[in-house]
Amino acid sequence: MAERLKKGLILLPILLGVGLFVWLVRHTTQPQQAPITEQARPVRTITVPATTVIPHALGYGNVEPGTTWEAVAEVSGKIITLNRQLKRGALLGVGEELLRIDPTDFELAAAQIQADIQALQAQLAELAVRETNTRASLAIEKEALTLSEKELTRMRQLADKGTVTRSALDQEERNTLAQRQTLQSLQNTLNLIPAERRLLEAQLARSQSQLQSAERDLQRTTITVPFTGRVAEVKIEESEFVRQGDVLAVIDDIAVAEVAAQLPTGRMSALIRSEQILSLTPQVDKALRETLGLSARVWLRNEPMQVMWEGRVARFSDTIDTQTRTVGVIVEVDDPYKDLQPGVRPPLLKGMFVEVELRGRPRPDQLVIPRSALHNDTVYLINAENRLALRPVTVQLTQPEFVVIGRGLEADDQVVISDLVPAIEGMLLQPVPDEEALALLLREAAGEEIPK
Question: What is the second-level CATH architecture of the domain 56-64+255-359?
Answer without folding.
Answer: Beta Barrel (2.40)
